[in-house]
Amino acid sequence: MKYLLTAALCLLLAAACKKESTPATPLDENADTTAILKDSGSFVNGPYGVVSGTAKIYKSAGKYQLSLENFTSTNGPDLKVYLSKEIQPVNFVNLGSLKSTSGNQLYNIPAGVAVADYKYALIHCQQYNHLFGYAERK
What is the CATH number of domain 20-136? Predict the structure, then answer.
């Protein structure tokens, strides 16, 4: 019984610690044609990943969206999209899980966020606190 419990615990831990958990199917989400481009920046690799593409902020009907365009990233566990005041996420807004490791993707920015204060778009592994890549928007 003790060995069975130990084996079950090991299997559970192995399943919970996936190396690649972000979908890889390319997406093709695009900003509304009436949206106004506010700023953009190109992704730079972080210490734990390879990321490319462009991060753009659009405003449409009083709402802001972050657009990842021509985007690719190495896969990893628990990848999140942040807007951050710094390259390392100390003061940041979590926009949610990365939808895919490739393609064009849109993320809604919550109302009340002072977008101009958050100059960096980050791809960050929340579980292990690893930066995969960042884009400084200008």
Answer: 2.60.40
Return the H-helix or E-strand segment holding 68: strand 63-73
Q: Over range 93-97, report the average pLDDT.
A: 98
pLDDT given at position 20: 75
Domain boundaries, the chain: 20-136
Please name the residue that has the structure tokens 């802001």: 64
DSSP characters over 6-46: HHHHHHHHHHHS-S--S--S-EE----TTPEEEEEEEEEE-
Cβ neighbours of 108 (radius 10 Å): 11
| C-alpha–C-alpha distance, residues 44 and 2, integer Å | 49
Closest CA to 137 of 42, 67, 35: 42
Can you give the pTM of this predicted structure? Answer: 0.85
Token code pair at residue 72: 């690719």
DSSP code for 110: P
For residues 99 and 8, the model is more confident at 99
Strands 27-28 and 102-108: parallel
Place of tokens 């990893």: 76
In the three-class reduction of DSSP (H, G, I as helix; E, B as strand; rest coil), residue 136 is classed as: strand
CB 43 within 8 A of CB 135: yes
